[in-house]
Amino acid sequence: xxxxxxxxxxxxxxxxxxxxxxxxxxxxxxxxxxxxxxxxxxxxxxxxxxxxxxxxxxxxxxxxxxxxxxxxxxxxxxxxxxxxxxxxxxxxxxxxxxxxxxxxxxxxxxxxxxxxxxxxxxxxxxxxxxxxxxxxxxxxxxxxxxxxxxxxx
Length: 153
Known about the structure:
single chain; alpha+beta; 4-stranded antiparallel β-sheet; 4 helices; 7 strands; 28% helix; 20% strand; globular
C-alpha cells in the first residue's frame, strides 16, 4: 500500500513540474483593470492589449500605443523576457497574437489614448476599415514595429 501511495505521489509531483505559465490572455475587467502606462481604466475592451512575460506576469493596456511605450520606453521588462503580446480584433474582440494581426493607422483614428492604431485579425478587415474611414494605411506587425509613436523624442 505504501508503495502505491509513493508512486501516486511521485506521478502527481512529476505532472505538476511540467506545468508552466499558459501565456494566454486574461479576461479584462473594466471595473478593476487599469493600463500599466496611463493608469486609465480599460473600459474600451476591443482596444485592450496584453503583454505576458516568460514568468507568467500579465501586463494590461488600454491602447496598443501604451503597450509599445511600456516595452520601448518604460523598460520594466526586457524584450528577451516577453513571452507573448496580444491585441484584439476591433470588430469582434477576439484576442490575437500581435505578430499575427494587421493594423489600420491614421493619426485621426479614435483610440483610448489617441495613438490612432486599430488592430484586426486579417488584412482585408484592416483595408475595409480604412476604406470606410476614407483615410489611413495598413501595417503588418513588422511595419508597426517601425512606427513612430510620438513619445519617441
